[in-house]
Each structure stands twice: as structure tokens, then as C-alpha cells.
């Protein structure tokens, strides 16, 4: 288990699936995590269990817990590029009671430190959509920088939005947060 100031990260367990399924069916959680409401909700609990427990060997998923071992979100990485020592990360704080309180930022710092120091990654990438300002600010606190914009790449509630592409180098992170 990885420990931060406010969060713990561990592998996803079978007991987590009911809660994760609820988040997938929560319009507000899906709206801010991906802008994909209602598309993500078209998965059954069994499909989500396979995705999170058995999943693809190319996608790594972890649970985010608070100080009291309460499941509050998920974090992970995909698109592993071994020669480039890079990956794309994602995070969802599914428990809305924890939004805007620094839990996501703490989990991202713990996770980035793990990936940079234990996996020896050189670079992490992520993306969000242009109206997800809360997420962009959290990513910037961790050290991510906006690297680009894909024009009208996201379709959210009948409107096109730009995708914001962000990246973080190991040297930048370690200078900001240490080992």
C-alpha cells in the first residue's frame, strides 16, 4: 500500500466493485471524470468487475482510500511506452464528499512519486476537457503543464469541447515534491 498525507493507494479488490459501479452510474461523477455521461453507464457490474479486477494487461488500476480506509476513488495508468519510459495516467474521485479537499492532488503526488521512483518513468501524460477547471488546477499543483489542445475532441452534452493535454517530467516532479 502506498501512503500519502491524506490518501492510501492499493490494488482494486472485489469489495470495491459495488462502489465503483455506483460511480459509473452517477451522472455528476461521469460528467467531470470524462464528460462521457451517459456512455460509461452502459456497462454492467460484471463488465466493470472484469475491467477492474481482470482487465487488460496494459492497464494498471488502483483504489484510492482516505485516512479511514474508505474507498474514495481510483487511479491508474495505461499506454505504457517502455522505450520512452512513459505512460498516461488517470484519476477519478468518485466519492463527491471528497471533491475540492485535496484528496485527488495527494493521490496524484503519491502515484507520480511511485511511477517516477519505482517504475523509473521519465514522463507522465494525461488529458481532460477544457471545462474541467478543478481537475486542471489539481494537475498543475502536482506539476503537470499544459502541452497542447486538441480542438473539439470531446463531445459533452451536445457540444464539442477541446481536450487539454498535460505532461509531467520526472525531473520537474522531483524538483517540486522531492523523493
From TrEMBL:
Keywords attached to this entry:
Transferase
The segment(s) forming the N-acetyltransferase domain are: 7-171
Entry keyword annotation includes Transferase: yes
Taxonomically, which superkingdom?
Bacteria
Pfam families per record: Acetyltransf_3
User: Per the UniProt entry, what species is this protein from, by scientific name?
Assistant: Desulfosporosinus lacus DSM 15449
Q: Which InterPro entries match?
A: Acyl_CoA_acyltransferase (IPR016181), GNAT_dom (IPR000182)
Q: What is this protein called?
A: Protein N-acetyltransferase, RimJ/RimL family
One GO term in the molecular function aspect is: acyltransferase activity, transferring groups other than amino-acyl groups
Q: Per its UniProt record, what SUPFAM superfamilies does this chain match?
A: Acyl-CoA N-acyltransferases (Nat)
Amino acid at each position: 500500500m502506498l501512503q500519502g498525507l491524506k490518501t492510501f493507494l492499493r490494488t482494486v479488490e472485489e469489495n470495491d466493485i459495488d462502489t465503483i459501479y455506483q460511480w459509473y452510474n452517477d451522472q455528476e461523477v461521469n460528467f467531470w471524470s470524462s464528460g462521457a455521461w451517459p456512455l460509461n453507464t452502459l456497462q454492467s457490474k460484471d463488465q466493470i468487475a472484469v475491467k477492474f479486477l481482470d482487465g487488460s494487461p496494459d492497464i494498471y488500476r488502483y483504489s484510492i482510500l482516505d485516512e479511514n480506509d474508505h474507498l474514495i476513488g481510483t487511479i491508474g495508468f495505461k499506454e505504457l511506452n517502455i522505450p520512452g519510459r512513459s505512460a498516461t495516467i488517470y484519476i477519478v474521485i468518485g466519492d463527491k464528499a471528497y471533491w475540492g479537499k485535496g484528496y485527488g492532488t495527494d493521490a496524484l503526488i503519491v502515484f507520480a512519486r511511485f511511477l517516477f521512483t519505482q517504475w523509473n518513468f521519465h514522463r507522465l501524460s494525461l488529458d481532460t476537457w477544457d471545462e474541467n477547471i478543478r481537475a486542471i488546477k489539481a494537475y498543475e499543483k502536482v506539476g503537470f503543464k499544459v502541452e497542447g489542445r486538441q480542438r473539439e475532441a470531446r463531445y459533452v452534452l451536445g457540444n464539442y469541447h477541446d481536450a487539454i493535454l498535460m505532461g509531467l517530467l520526472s525531473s520537474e516532479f522531483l524538483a517540486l515534491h522531492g523523493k
